[in-house]
Amino acid sequence: MKVLVIGSGAREHAIVRALTADPAVDAVIAAPGNPGIDTIALCRDLPGGLLDGPGVAHLAAEVHADLVVIGPEAPLVAGVADAVRARGIACFGPTAQAARLEGSKAFAKEVMAAAGVPTALAHVCTSLDEVTDALDALGAPYVVKDDGLAAGKGVVVTRSRAQAVAHAAQCLAKEGGRVVVEEYLDGPEVSLFCLTDGTTVVPLTPAQDFKRVGDGDEGPNTGGMGAYSPLDWAPEGLVADVVARVAQPTVDEMRHRGTPFAGVLYVGLALTSRGPRVVEFNARFGDPETQVVLARLATPLGGLLHACATGTLDQVGELRWHPEHAVTVVIASKGYPDSPRTGDEIHGLDQVGDEAWVLHAGTAPGREGAVVSAGGRVLSVVAMGGDLGEARDRAYRAVDRISLDGSHHRTDIALAAQRGEVSVPTQPTA
């Protein structure tokens, strides 16, 4: 099987790495890829960019791809998967209609309501008057979300009413701007990827990511500064419960609407005192959780994704997992997330050693074989260990060997879990 992976981030690097380890995969091509992906797969340009559906479909036909895997959310929402399927090529990733589960938070709320999925109370607002009424109705802490795609940075959670109103105003200023004002959900957050062919749902292992830029969850939201898996503190039966109460009803509802969802349904959860509640849906693998989830997946990835794309997921047996814990730490450029600096040379990539590996996120070729920063999140450093402590030690030792002027990273990824300090609020007894 020949697979074309669309995207250029650490998520795509993780997917390519897993695909190259699958004996059933003969070749992996990435477009546009990055310098890290280029060391393990063939990279091809996308002259029309990631959102050019006909261009992606043409490249897939040109390289005789048996499967196209679309990594980022923007091309899915733009209908790139539709263009690939129109050429008769199997594609992992939902249609533009189905990808609205991520493209519009208001639409996702509508689907959840129809499917009986437990989620936060929410008000969809198109004016500042509606926003202020919703903020007053739900109270602090305030949660205000941009209705559309915002690369993980469209959400503000704050006790400051002024900050909540300012964020809403910024979102509403866009053409067709809408915001969703939600009740605040207590409890730790969990990411669960559910693979689906539109009918069958197969969950992967849960992970937890770290959205805030600074240690102790301080500072603004980012695309994600690190992650770990498995979650030893999660309640027994959580995955089966989420599949039964969230993922399967959502997939069934989408099919009944005539817009079946095939790909990965990313379920972002809060484990609240009232039980699990959906924070958000995404229509693709999450970054950086993919880096740790795929590190632990022992079942070959290519066959799994192909089954999702061809409606044969019910024929896949039980998934196999490596028992080790995995941790990833993101190295971000100076100024991220507000105004990331690019063009700085990265040193020490060849000094990481065998205990960890580096996935490229925002990098570009520099002079004379050098690699330079080309984005906000520059690298994801991944390590595995017999327990979280060992995985953390290995990951941070590798991070310390890499040098990027002005870069920063969180030092507390998975630390609370390692110390046994993550707890799920107890549900009140009847």
UniProtKB/TrEMBL annotation:
It comes from Oryzihumus leptocrescens. GO terms for molecular function: ATP binding; metal ion binding; phosphoribosylamine-glycine ligase activity. The keyword Nucleotide-binding applies. GO terms for biological process: 'de novo' IMP biosynthetic process; purine nucleobase biosynthetic process. Belongs to the GARS family. It catalyses: 5-phospho-beta-D-ribosylamine + glycine + ATP = N(1)-(5-phospho-beta-D-ribosyl)glycinamide + ADP + phosphate + H(+). It is an enzyme of class 6 (ligase). Its cofactor is Mg(2+); Mn(2+). Pfam families: GARS_A (PF01071), GARS_C (PF02843), GARS_N (PF02844). Pathway: Purine metabolism; IMP biosynthesis via de novo pathway; N(1)-(5-phospho-D-ribosyl)glycinamide from 5-phospho-alpha-D-ribose 1-diphosphate: step 2/2. It comes from the Bacteria. Its EC number is 6.3.4.13. This is Phosphoribosylamine--glycine ligase. The keyword ATP-binding applies. Keywords: ATP-binding, Ligase, Nucleotide-binding, Purine biosynthesis. Residues 109-310 form the ATP-grasp domain. InterPro entries: ATP-grasp (IPR011761), ATP_grasp_subdomain_1 (IPR013815), PreATP-grasp_dom_sf (IPR016185), PRibGlycinamid_synth_ATP-grasp (IPR020561), PRibGlycinamide_synth (IPR000115), PRibGlycinamide_synth_C-dom (IPR020560), PRibGlycinamide_synth_C_sf (IPR037123), PRibGlycinamide_synth_CS (IPR020559).
